[in-house]
Amino acid sequence: MKSLAELAAIREKMKDRVVLREGQGDIRVVVGMATCGIAAGARPVLSAFVQGVADEGLSDKVTVTQTGCIGICQYEPVVEVFEAGKEKVTYVKMTADKAKEVIEKHLKGGSPVAEYTIGQNQ
Amino acid sequence: MIRAQVLICGGTGCTSSGSKAIQQAFNEQIELAGLSEEVKLVQTGCFGLCALGPVVIIYPDGTFYSRVTPEDVSEIVTEHLLKGRVVERLVYADTGEEKVEDVTQVSLGDTAFYKAQHRVALRNCGVINPENIDEYIAMDGYQALGKVLTEMTPEEVIDVVLKSGLRGRGGAGFPTGRKWSMARTLVPDADQKYVCCNADEGDPGAFMDRSVLEGDPHAVLEAMAIAGYAIGANQGFIYVRAEYPIAVARLKIAIQQAHEYGLLGKNIFGTGFDFDIELRLGAGAFVCGEETALMTSIEGKRGEPRPRPPFPAVKGLFGKPTILNNVETYANIPQIILKGADWFASMGTEKSKGTKVFALGGKIKHTGLVEVPMGTTLRQIVEEIGGGIPNGKKFKAAQTGGPSGGCIPAEHLDVPIDYDNLLAIGSMMGSGGLIVMDEDNCMVDIAKFFLEFTVDESCGKCTPCRVGTKRLLEMLTKITEGKGTMEDLDEMEQLCYYIKNNALCGLGQTAPNPVLSTLRYFRDEYVAHIVDKKCPAGVCKNLLTYKIDKEKCIGCGMCARQCPANAISKTDYTAPGKKLPAMAIDPEKCVKCGACMSTCKFKAITKE
Questions:
Q1: pLDDT tens digits, residue range B65-79?
Q2: Are the C-beta atoms of residues A77 and A43 closer than 8 Å to each other?
Q3: What local confidence, expressed as pLDDT, does residue A23 receive?
Q4: Which residues in chain B come in under a pLDDT of 70?
Q5: Nearest chain A Cα to B273, which residue?
Q6: Residue B175 shares a structural domain with residue B322
Q7: How many structural domains compose chain B?
Q8: Domains defined along chain A, listed by start
Q9: CB-CB: which of A3, A14, A24 is closest to B135?
């Protein structure tokens, strides 16, 4: 180790690996991963969220996790976004591409993508 | 891309309850479910809740699974990791409240065991992989060393440690900053100084240092390098017992990794500061935990103490100025440097700052490792965090400080624990072993147990300890055999004070403490042994009598067949309604093994 900068570089590189263990972030993205969800394609959606959140450097703020059947199987893959002090947003019939848009506009930008929410899809 | 992490405890407790097999099962099942790219397996140090091991935690949810078996693993993988459904039956969710609404919402920090804890020395234990230096660095590891070498003078470092109020966690509670400052200044022209770490944890029931070394070895290495810079030393030694194989293995890995990164060795961070650490394995003699004996042992000689002064800060290892701190003391140092003296001093009581790790053992539900701010009451530790006494038994006493400490009775349960309060009530902090005893424990027997230990471990160099503890044990044995007299009690007390005042080292000076404290708080039990010839807890064999109730005995003779001493024979009395004559025990022949009592199906045999 020749300098502090080297140490800082290792720390930055490794941070994502341990940040998961520091507990829940302010925003929780929950992907429905019951049989119906997986059958409808929830796996790529989950991966897209995990990858996207890391790429955008949102790991400190956003926790991506999964849950069981939410009960609206015809709308799967379902993704719910919880944020303290705000109303829950439920996205339905998600895809990996839609996930990217949600990360960009909702998680980063702060405004939900209305056209993918359950209210717009009934 | 990793989205979930499975942390499996690789501490000594969970390893012996089978965590290695679980790790293997997870590896297989994760592979099978095609989750290898998404789920990462991490082996960590001790989480603390050893009683419920093997322990598995899944992040990001923080779900805490206890007593996991290899058969449970496929369910956890398919349900939790694949489908996101928590396996409720395995979740440990004891929050201390009557009813838990939804166990899936309970995470580690909510449980009664963890809620009241405050982790400083243990902050990385159970969180990082101790065999991976990168994970330690990610948790701000080696930042404190960097800060010290590039921004602070040695005097400033000592000043921060002094101001933090940190005191030695090995038991005696000497202010760490003062120790460092003495080693820096007392011998100004020393050509060589040493930094030593006391990892010779020998108290029965103590496993704090072991867990820190197993769970966060780099924290100790970093702190020793900081200490080296502060006092002007470039060589460190860790004296660790060979009976701690996992700790030794992880220390070796840690030292090697630190070398590879140049965090130990020559010219650290390009500042010109050199520091290296070597391991020395102790063979397990209790006296080698005493500082002068420890250093003598590192020198390759027989581990015997020597008189002080000269103190190690003047003349220590190889005759050079040396500091010797305990593992837990070191584990606090990097945090104090990074977060400041005020942060550390904000925790604890007026004269004891920070937190203390305790190893909970004995008659308690949650056997394990806890870290609480100084000043927490014994009641909180035993009842809230420890979950109380199993089987509805009553609390009798807690033993702190191992063979050097004493017993704290129920009346002192609400005393805030710190160095000075414990001394005032006749015990001591010690390294942090905390053994809980209930009504089934005989206090005379406990005192005898600890005395047996010190008699065994006395190095024999000084007479008060070598002969005094032996005589003390003989008197205790006499009492437990029902042959004691009231005069013995006074003589014992006198002998205790004589040993305390005259023994050469800490081992002898504190060896009478278990006797003195039990005499102080449980004198009535001693009196019962001497005057009534009874052991109230029913432990001391010689004072027990086994009897057969001749009205209940059906005369089957099972007991007589079990008896190894042929002490049971037929009488000529047959109880009304029974076909065979009752049996009776000859008290002269009885060896009080209890075999007859556990054999009798008719509950006709009692002991009193």
A1: 999 999 999 999 998
A2: no
A3: 62
A4: 98-101, 104-105
A5: A2
A6: yes
A7: 5
A8: 21-120 (3.40.30.10)
A9: A14
